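Attaching the record inline, Q. Sequence:
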Amino acid sequence: MQGIEESVLYYLQMFIINGNKSEQLLTMSFSAQVDPKQTQHCVNEVKAPLEHMKPGFHFLTDLSDLDHMDAACAGDIGKIMDLCTANGVGAVSSVVPNPGKDIGFALMYSFHYGRSVCTMTHETLEDALKTLAE
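Structure, as predicted:
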C-alpha cells in the first residue's frame, strides 16, 4: 500500500484542482515536471468539481510553478478543455509567465472552446485575479 500512497502524493505535487461553487470558479495549477501520466490523472480528477459548476463558470489555469510540460500532455489538456465546454464554461484565463513552457494552450482554445468562450492569457496570477474581480 505504501507505493500507492506515494503515487498519489506524486500526482498531487504536479497539479492542484479547486472548484469554488459559490464563486463559480474552477482553478487548476500545474507545477514541476508534468508528463502524460499526471495529466491523464488530472482529466479524471477534474470531473468531480465540474459537477458543481453552473453554465457560465470561469476556468483559471496557472502555469506559474511549472518547470516543464511534455508536449504529449496536449491530448489530455484538450480533454479537460472539452469537459469544461460540455459543462458550460463562460470564460477561461491562463497564467503563463514563461511562454516557453506553454504547450500551445492559446491554439488549443480555438479548437476546444470556440468563439463563444472568452479566453485571456496573463503573465502573472495577480493580473488574472484582477481581471476576475472586474
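The helical segments are 2-14, 36-50, 74-86, 105-112, 125-133. Residues 36-50 form the longest helix (15 residues).

More tomorrow.
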